[in-house]
Amino acid sequence: MSRHPRPGRGDEQAAHLLIAGLGLLLPLLLYQLRHLDDNSLTSWYWVFQVADPWRLFLGLLLLTPLCWLLARLPKWRDREGVLPVRSLLLLPVSAFLACLPFLDTPEVIVDAARYFLQAKSFSIHGPAWFLREWGREIFAWTDLPLIPLIYGLLLGLFEESRLAIQLFNALLFALTALLIAVLGRDLWDRETGVAGALLFLGFPYLYSQTPLLLVDIGTMFFLLLAMVAFHRALVWGGYCYPLLCALAVAAVLFSKYSAWLLLSGLLPVLLCSLERDRGLGLRRAALVLLPALLLVVPLFWYHREVMGAQIGLLWEFQKPGLAGWSESLISTFCFQTHPLLTTAALYSLYRAGRLRDLRYLILLWPVVLLLILLEVRRIRYSIPIFPLLALLAAYGLRDLEPPALRRHLLLLVVASSLLLAQGGFLPFLQSMSERNLQQAGRYLDTLAVERVEVVVVPPTEPAMDPRMAVPLLDLFTSRPLVYRPLISVAPPPGATTSSLRFTWELPLPRFYATLPQAVRNRALVLILPGAEVALPAEIEDKIRGLELLNRFAADSGAFQHRTLVEVYGPAPELLIPLSP
Fold first, then answer.
1. Each residue of 219-240: pLDDT tens digit?
2. How many structural domains comprise the chain?
């Protein structure tokens, strides 16, 4: 592989100084331009209304020279690789540990209510009922069943513990980092793979997604697993990797509709393998894809009407809606991604063209398909290509010599991204009003009550159906919830074209209408749209005679939708202790 000549000692010091300077100046520039960040969840404009920018900059001032020193340790200074071989397992371990501070994040995206209801239906009724009633009794919207099924299995095994699902997603995130290292090594060399795995930690936005009850992290993992296994199946043959690839392809097909198109990323893998032996490559590809079809076709056929309606909904509703729900590329690749990572990924285009490297197309095609041909401008829909972007950036960095410069840049990208995620995004997410549901659910578990009745007071101009607070509260408490609508809420004008349309169409399952017999103690949870709300007479009657036990009123002020929670019940000294 061609390399540029190594710079002299003075040039190397100047390059280190440039990297350190960019690491300090770029965040300051982005902070001044934060009004350009139109991300719908972790916009810098909102984040720094809560987070202290000077505290973060002080942290960056401390980390910048530390990264420089670590990159130039005598032990590593003349080493060609990014990490020693024995440190390879540090990659998934580090990725897993990076997710742990976010476990206390509330469910800040309302889609989690839909996935939780699907998963809870599985844990209550079992797999046969779940697969039979998917899209019928179970409201499926445009979802596919695999990841809610896995979540339901975890809920059943761990007594509806959200933590089990969060740790599962953190594990998938960690394994994705390992797969990046494997794919980079298989395509080029070990250092490119390790650098790609490290750069994967340079997407601050990803840490806001790993603790949530969504399907994007799982889809990302299964897609990358399919690409790695397919490449190894075509190059190495055997039976293990074809079987693994078939399972991974089936998992992608049952995870998310938007990932179906990204499976076309397997085509460049096949084309590269045909250069060596066309007949052998085609036979091995058939050995992979035929078992995958055998796995998915029966379930697709059984649910053909449901899936046909879902695809129609995607085409008629979500495809036109994406134009109105978009986020700019500047937001996604400058604010929510470290800009040095983005720069390295762009430079990789030049490097691949100079070297005429066809293997580069394996990574490039899904990125071009999603961002250029399909013009997807929603960051959550771009998550599956983030591992490929990290590997593209690592490929571009191979021209940066000597290795100490690469290590310096890699360490700086990772350290500053983790600093932003944990020091900026995390406090902001924990300040959102959805945290009130989290804290109220935990508080209910401390009360000696057998039943919790939930009453929702709708806002004057609702952005979404306020009933969605019921499953989101249920996610954080082990107490059985009962919901009976006292006030009907009509969808606002424009609800049929809103990204929150599903909230108005989702029926709450029957288990929220079941009243346990012989209830000794009960609590009432009042979910409000704001602090100063006049209660209707029927709700006043409900809480008459009950004592206000606690109130949860956190609010970042960034969003129109607000959720405040009040918990009512008998005086604590009147509660009858429940038998263990």
1. 999 999 999 999 999 998 888 9
2. 2
